[in-house]
Design a protein that fits this description.
Low-confidence stretches: 3-31
Number of helices: 5
Shape: globular
Radius of gyration: 21 Å
Mean pLDDT: 90
Strand content: 25-35%
Helix content: 10-25%
Strand order of the largest sheet: 5-9-8-7-6
Number of strands: 28
């Protein structure tokens, strides 16, 4: 059984995850749940504060991060969006140039209908607790009916074990009802303006088919009895993939209707994944481990990354190479023959996401906010900044 979820539990359980970064600076999350409804404060230093993910939607770029901070940029400089929450935001995705969603800590999901300039809450941790509690209670009721309808001792023992696990989940929720919601969402996947999925800590898995007006808990669709964290969900068309803690890897080949467990090549945590233009699966995580599959996850090839730092996120470039970023300023560029070029950003910063702006020009997010490649800062300047020099 997993321990009861608490802010400290999330911090320890996700110690190698990129989404732990802002918890280190957002100390209010440890004791105060007003951050759920407190609007993000405006700041002239927002570009250098912790940012977790960045995406493109048409000609616009949108980045999300600590304290509910959201930045957007079209033609002029980056501007701060109006956001009605100040939790750490962990992911962002759009269905079209106007409609987008972002996930965050304390069970928060927000959305925009003006291209990312203003955002409002659709779900928070208090509502999430009630959704999950009802879901677990219904599952217990169904399992108890199965127990009563069979005389198979082995089947009864397995059903009773599942009931015990679900009762433990309800106990966790009851504790959280007293202490306040702390379960974070870690990623989301948007299929269209109506259908999207959100994943998070301790096996949290939700789906909406009405654009977020209501959400359905579907955690039982994944084989995750240990309740391990689900870190990233990605896909294209009907092929969807989820990777997470303890090497978890899942796939759906029918648009999220049915899910199957993949034979993961790694038992450590996987933090990121993406598809290239050919539909090959790239996934990566703890201690520089990275893999690629050209058969929809039925088998994987190990990539010799030449690094042992944690890899957080990646993307496919227009030229057909793959980028992966991670701790210590690490940037990996992998060609079609799986040859790896290891670059280092002079900031030496933890990086959590990367997008291509033009060929050879990339923007990253992370502990130091927005970063560029080619770098716009020298190693000396980065060191002076870290030491507080003016």
């Amino acid at each position: 059984m997993r321990l009861s979820l608490s802010p400290l539990g999330v911090l320890l359980g996700a110690i190698f995850s990129t989404t732990v970064l802002a918890q280190e600076v957002d100390t209010s999350t440890m004791t105060d749940y007003d951050v759920i409804s407190a609007p993000a404060l405006s700041s002239d230093k927002i570009k250098s504060e912790v940012l977790i993910e960045v995406t493109t939607v048409g000609p616009r770029m949108v980045a999300v991060g600590a304290h509910g901070n959201i930045l957007w940029k079209e033609e002029s400089d980056w501007q701060q969006a109006k956001v009605d929450t100040s939790v750490l935001l962990t992911s962002v995705a759009f269905s079209d140039p106007e409609n987008g969603w972002a996930t965050g800590h304390h069970g928060v999901i927000i959305n925009t209908d003006d291209g990312g300039k203003t955002w409002k809450r659709q779900l928070d941790g208090y509502e999430l607790m009630q959704l999950e509690k009802s879901y677990f209670e219904n599952r217990i009721s169904n399992l108890q009916e199965e127990v009563e309808s069979t005389n198979d001792d082995e089947a009864i023992a397995e059903l009773e074990f599942q009931i015990e696990e679900l009762q433990f989940q309800i106990s966790n929720i009851e504790v959280a009802e007293e202490e306040g919601p702390s379960k974070p969402f870690l990623d989301l996947y948007v299929k269209n303006s109506k259908t999207l999925w959100a994943i998070g800590a301790y096996g949290t898995f939700l789906k909406t088919e009405n654009g977020g007006d209501s959400w359905q808990v579907i955690s039982g669709e994944l084989e995750n009895p240990g309740g391990y964290h689900l870190n990233t969900i990605f896909g294209r068309g009907d092929n969807l993939y989820i990777v997470g803690e303890a090497g978890l890897a899942f796939a759906s080949y029918d648009g999220g209707i049915n899910w199957q467990t993949l034979n993961s090549p790694y038992r450590g945590s996987l933090f990121g994944g993406h598809l290239d233009a050919a539909g090959n699966i790239w996934m990566y995580g703890l201690r520089g481990n990275a893999y690629v599959s050209d058969d929809k996850g039925q088998s994987f090839t190990t990539i010799n990354t030449g690094t042992t730092v944690n890899l957080s996120a990646g993307t496919s470039t227009a030229a057909g190479t793959q980028l992966m970023v991670g701790h210590s300023g690490t940037i990996l560029e992998v060609d079609e023959q799986l040859n790896v070029k290891n670059k280092t950003h002079p900031s030496g910063s933890v990086m959590t996401d990367v997008i291509e702006v033009t060929e050879g020009e990339w923007i990253m997010t992370g502990r130091s906010g927005l970063l560029h490649w080619p770098a716009k800062i020298t190693g000396e300047a980065a060191l002076a900044k870290q030491q507080g020099a003016q």
